[in-house]
Amino acid sequence: MENTGTIVGNLLLGLPVILVCLVIQVSFAYWCLRFYVRNSAPSATHRAFPVMRNLLGVMLIVMLGTVVQVALWGVLFVLLNEFDEFYEAVYHSAVNFASLGYGDIVMSHRWKLLGPLEALCGVLMLGMNAAVLMAILQHILKSQHRALTPD
Predict the structure, then answer these.
(1) Are 125 and 25 in contact (CB under 8 A)?
(2) For the whole model, what pTM was predicted?
(3) Which mean pLDDT values do the consecutive 10-residue runs of the chain (151 residues) have?
């Protein structure tokens, strides 16, 4: 019976954090697409530097969104007294978020289910990052093909 309470406690804490991560992810995905659209002049779609600059900007925004989410989980771990140092909490969070599973740091029995919950969150969010980048790359390829193909 004790484990049931632990599972419920982990879910009651982890699921709202996942929802906050979803909001963060959607916000950063929107900013990425908006940045790309605003900075992609149709006349410059066949030039390498403007395309690379825009793609680099999008990738930096995506990475920033990921770092914010990892830090959010790290803050939660510190608030739960799982870590004394924010650095260690963020390190552990990054390992979970990226689904690396090093195992060099293990949280207490009471909160260790948060690790797999964060990993599930990370897989979803990193997949969404990949989808945003893929959509932009597809647009770049289509634009370059149109610019280089005679009518």
Answers:
(1) yes
(2) 0.89
(3) 79 96 97 91 70 92 97 98 97 96 91 95 97 93 82 68
